[in-house]
Amino acid sequence: MSPSAQLVTAWQAVADMLPIAKGSGLVIDWDQASSLMYTSGDVRIIRIWDAETELRVQVWLVVVMLDCCYK
User: Which long-range contacts (CB under 8 A, 24 or more apart) does 33-41 make?
Assistant: First the structure.
């Protein structure tokens, strides 16, 4: 950063990424009408953030049944 630049805010969308060789990494979806940001990716959760208050609103646990996909 330059001497005149100043960090206003920072946050960590996902802290517990799974070690997957060919994963999706971090996935972010922004809903401008509601100011909500949905974050997920190589994790077992979906976090919902309120961009106006800069707070986490909700956390959803994602359950995946792999047996159904490999028959």
Answer: 37/13, 39/13, 39/14, 40/14, 41/14, 41/17
On the 0-12 / 13-18 / 19+ scale of CB atoms within 10 A, 42 is middle
Give the pLDDT confidence of 11-47 residue by residue, as tens digits.
778 777 777 777 788 889 999 999 999 998 888 889 9
With contact defined as beta carbons under 8 Å apart, do 39 and 49 qualify? yes
Tokens of 70: 């490999």
Lookup: tokens for 56: 């986490």
- Greatest CA span in the chain, whole angstroms? 59
For residues 51 and 36, the answer to whether their CB atoms sit within 8 Å is yes
Its pTM surpasses 0.85: no
